[in-house]
Design brief:
Elements lengths: L1 H29 L4 H5 L14 H4 L5 H11 L5 E6 L2 E6 L2 H10 L17 H4 L7 H11 L5 H24 L6 E5 H17 L13 H9 L5 H11 L1 H6 L7 H21 L6 H9 L4 E2 L12 E2 L7 H32 L1 H18 L7 H5 L2 H13 L6 E4 L4 E4 L5 E4 L4 E4 L1 H4 L43 H18 E4 L24 E6 L9
Parallel strand pairs: 2-9
Antiparallel strand pairs: 1-2, 3-11, 4-5, 6-9, 7-8, 10-11
């Protein structure tokens, strides 16, 4: 009889467990799947649990292709629905609505979706990108002067000196026939690593000679979004609340310890020796000492005549975080842009030849051995056009993300209105927008002339979303472009870039990567130019 009773209880317990699982599945999946139906928002039926990301998660298509297909499918709407796993996301495809959200009504969408515990994950949780609300505004105000034109000029000499040395190293590694086939992502990661190390941390590194230095090794681990790190980044982006509740860290304690040590040691040495170097660490040191002064509009007064104002109390981790994320951007974002730019120049020799002529003209005008200046680089219109066309066709970020911070109404073309609530997620499909034939005719063609000042089809600057739009755009975009253009100025002075046996064309995107990356690597053959054409370095 006892056995019968126990068996009955187990049966009841099992039934309750099944009922509980069914209930949870209903509320977490089935009911959630009706989110867009109940709001009258167009969407594609999602795969249970995986949502509309199923093809990306199962490595069938890159997220850029998934969003681009949906963007084209819902061309009659200003926005559509997307399930990021179980999370419903509003995807805005109409440019006027994009501008309204990012600029005019920015206060409704001030934050990114990612939500990190700044005490538990100090390396990224305290970084500008992850900060929210007032704390983000204050940090943005403090960091903005580090990326003004005057600061770019001060750092530009560091970049050109480094590029000259890097060219000598690359030239020395050419084969007997004056050629070498190189992987571009790896090459430009070394450039980015060393340039950001000197401009942000004040440390001189040569990753072409010392190929296993700690900065480069940890940087590679930091930005490897294909393995465990990629899964973690995806989880933090898609399930921010869950990851925060579980108190998991985006970056390891080893990375945190390394970068904190570098920043703190650098600051200590500068304070002890009275060293002043015009870089990010110097600006952060001033901010921590409350030495920054502000004018009547609350902008930092570079004349030094304004009034001091206390924006925030700084910790060692606040300082470390800003430098580290600057390093993150310079290491990976710039290397991605540069790798695709090298590919397009190699497969479009007419574009490369026109750009080389501009470079040679500039070198003649400044006198072969004279230093390239920031002003001269900024005057190179065709170099600008090539860089922007690369950003348009191969933007490093497939989409921009925001979280609704207070109620907001989206209105479709037919007048249908949808009420967004605090916490609702929103994406802007940057890659799809910049390949929209209505905005950029013949979008798959690499055609820098579309950015010419006298172009027959003027481009709305707001459609260039590679670095974001509005107050929350990328603070380091000017630095990224300056670095990229300077590197290519020196590369094309010394080398021809050509298709080689390992060059994949047309490019196919690596489906396993969260970021934009070529499926078989970005291999380009370098061929030395005539010595007389490259003299002076």
């Amino acid at each position: 009889m006892l056995g019968t009773l126990v068996g009955s209880l187990l049966t009841v317990e099992g039934a309750l467990l099944v009922a509980l699982v069914a209930l949870l599945y209903y509320y977490a999946v089935v009911r959630n799947m009706r989110f867009f139906v109940e709001r009258g928002v167009p969407y594609l039926p999602p795969v249970p649990l995986l949502g509309n990301s199923a093809d990306f998660i199962t490595r069938k298509r890159h997220i850029t292709d998934v969003l681009s297909d949906m963007y084209a499918r819902f061309g009659q709407h200003r926005f559509f629905g997307y399930f990021d796993f179980l999370s419903p996301i509003f995807v805005v495809r109409d440019m006027e609505l994009v501008k309204q959200i990012c600029i005019k009504d920015f206060d409704h969408f001030i934050n990114h979706r990612i939500d990190l515990d700044e005490n538990h994950d100090p390396l990224f949780g305290r970084a500008l990108f992850a900060m929210r609300d007032t704390r983000w505004r204050n940090m943005r105000t403090v960091l903005s002067p580090a990326f003004t034109g005057s600061k770019m000029r001060l750092m530009f000499g560091l970049i050109t000196t480094y590029c000259e040395g890097a060219m000598r190293t690359i030239r020395s590694e050419m084969g007997a026939d004056g050629t070498a086939e190189l992987e571009m992502k790896e090459l430009f990661r070394r450039f980015g690593n060393d340039i950001v190390a000197t401009c942000a941390f004040g440390i001189e590194i040569n990753s072409f000679k010392d190929r296993t230095n700690a900065f480069f090794t940890l940087g590679k681990e930091l930005t490897n979004l294909e393995g465990v790190q990629g899964i973690k980044f995806l989880a933090f982006s898609s399930f921010p609340r869950v990851m925060k509740a579980l108190r998991l860290r985006l970056f390891s304690s080893r990375m945190t310890t390394f970068f904190r040590s570098v920043v703190m040691d650098t600051i200590a040495q500068r304070e002890q020796r009275g060293i002043v170097r015009h870089d990010m660490i110097n600006l952060l040191m001033q901010a921590r000492k409350q030495e920054l002064r502000f004018d009547e509009n609350d902008n930092i007064d570079t004349s030094g005549e304004g009034s001091p104002k206390r924006l925030m109390d700084w910790t060692d981790d606040d300082l470390t975080a800003q430098c580290t994320v600057f390093f993150f951007g310079g290491y990976d974002t710039v290397s991605t842009l540069s790798a695709f730019m090298a590919h397009e120049l190699a497969v479009n020799p007419d574009v490369q030849e026109r750009l080389r002529k501009e470079i040679d003209t500039v070198r003649t005008s400044i006198g072969g051995s004279d230093k390239l200046t920031y002003e001269t680089l900024q005057s190179m219109r065709y170099l600008d056009m090539v860089a922007y066309e690369t950003l348009r066709k191969w933007t490093p970020a497939p989409f921009l993300d925001r979280t609704c911070s207070k109620p907001y109404v989206l209105e479709d073309y037919d007048g249908h209105k949808v009420q967004l609530q605090k916490g609702d997620g929103l994406w802007i499909p940057a890659a799809a927008i910049m390949r929209d034939p209505q905005l950029f005719p013949d979008p798959d063609r690499f055609w820098p002339e579309r950015f010419a000042p006298d172009s027959e089809v003027p481009i709305d600057s707001a459609t260039m979303l590679s670095f974001g739009l509005g107050p929350r755009n990328c603070i380091g975009s000017r630095f990224a472009l300056m670095e990229t253009k300077a590197v290519f100025f020196y590369l094309l002075t010394h080398f021809f870039l050509e298709k080689g046996p390992r060059t994949q064309h047309p490019i196919k995107l690596k489906k396993t990567s969260l970021i934009l990356s070529a499926e078989k690597g970005s291999w380009i053959r370098f061929r030395l130019r005539d010595q007389s054409a490259a003299k002076g370095n």
